[in-house]
Amino acid sequence: MDKVIDYYNRFDEWGRLDREPIEFIVNWRHIRSLLPQKGHILDNGAGPGKYSVELAKNGYDVTLTDLTPRLVELAGEKAVELKLEEFFKGFHIADARNLDMFNDEQFDASLMLGPLYHLQTSADRDSAVQELHRVTRKDGIVFVAFMTRIRHLTTSLLYPQHWKPNDNIADINLFLETGIFNHQDEGRFTGAYYFNIEDINPYMESQGFETIKLIGSSSIAGSFKQEQFEYWRSRGEEEFQEVMNTIYKESENAHILGVSSHLLYIGRRK
Questions:
Q1: What string of DSSP letters covers the chain?
Q2: CA separation for the pair 263, 219 (Å, rounded)
Q3: What's the Cα-to-Cα distance from 212 to each of 105, 107, 245, 264, rounded to whole Å?
Q4: Which residues have a Cβ under 8 Å from the Cβ of 180 and sit 6 or more positions away?
Q5: The pTM of the whole model exceeds 0.85
Q6: Which pLDDT band holds residue 15 (cuts at 50, 70, 90)?
Q7: Ramachandran angles phi, psi of 265, nearest 5°
Q8: CA–CA separation, 74 vs 143, rounded Å?
Q9: Which Gene3D superfamilies does the record cross-reference, listed alphabetically (predicted)?
Q10: Cα(110)–Cα(41) distance, rounded to whole angstroms?
Q11: pLDDT on residue 7
């Protein structure tokens, strides 16, 4: 996992969610609508704490974990900067595959919006999901991020020189068969695993979760830039909210899951 740590030591994950706001906006809409009214939430693999901060702003107790020490430190600094430290119950450098610092059923709900696509073996992915299951209380809601093969296939065909070794059809076919991707350009991305969309719900269900829904985090607005948001805002707040409601609604449309860079699985712990 050293390469994952090295990558996120350099990469501006907080800035990514600012530059590509639709993912965060859509995810948060679904997360907030399904969380209990109050409680203790685990943000597992939280990065710099973008979602944790939002949880704290809404009055939840939050425990944050991440594999990268620099990001855990940054999350702590954000909590202090925004005067939210009273809501944070811990900042932990931790591997999602081993959460032994937590008790069984300790959290009322849990987020895991990153670790799964950095774990390339089925045993590692199983360990992370089983730990999420263990520390979440019975009937607690979980939110888990996935990346998909079909979207990465599209990206590879569009920008082959940026996604080596997926710059030739033989390696693309191997990727489609295995879901495993190892970037040849050191530092551009980490080793990753991409799911087939049709496997996500059955996989999570096999690990003890009941599926609520699977949504496309980019919805129909994955290509939006600032100019698109500015245009719809210029037409007035009422029309802008109608546009956003359409984006939220269509995020649940199964026909657009393959064009979204990230999917959000929402399930209930049995």
A1: -HHHHHHHHHS-HHHHHHHSHHHHHHHHHHHHHHS-SS-EEEEET-TTTHHHHHHHHTT-EEEEEES-HHHHHHHHHHHHHTT-GGGEEEEEE-BTTB-TTS-TT-EEEEEE-SGGGG--SHHHHHHHHHHHHHHEEEEEEEEEEE-BHHHHHHHHHH-GGGSTTTTSHHHHHHHHHH-EE--SSTTS---EE-B-HHHHHHHHHHTTEEEEEEEETTTT-TT--HHHHHHHHHT-HHHHHHHHHHHHHHTT-GGGGGG-S-EEEEEEE-
A2: 9
A3: 20, 19, 20, 11
A4: 120, 191, 192, 193
A5: yes
A6: low
A7: -85, 135
A8: 23
A9: Vaccinia Virus protein VP39
A10: 6
A11: 62
Q: Which residue has the tokens 């702003």?
A: 57
Partner residues linked to 267 by β-bridges: 142, 211
Q: CA 238 to CA 252: how far, in whole Å?
A: 22
pLDDT of residue 188 exceeding 80, the answer is: no
Which tokens sit at 204? 């999570």
* Token digits of residue 34: 């399904």
Q: In this structure, how many other beta carbons lie within 10 angstroms of the beta carbon of residue 169?
A: 10
According to the 3-state scheme, what is the secondary structure of 228-252? HHHHHHHCCHHHHHHHHHHHHHHCC
d(CA 79, CA 76): 5
How far apart CA 260 and CA 224 sit, in angstroms, is: 12
Separation of alpha carbons 252 and 214, rounded Å? 7
Q: What are phi and psi of 13, to 5 degrees?
A: -70, -35
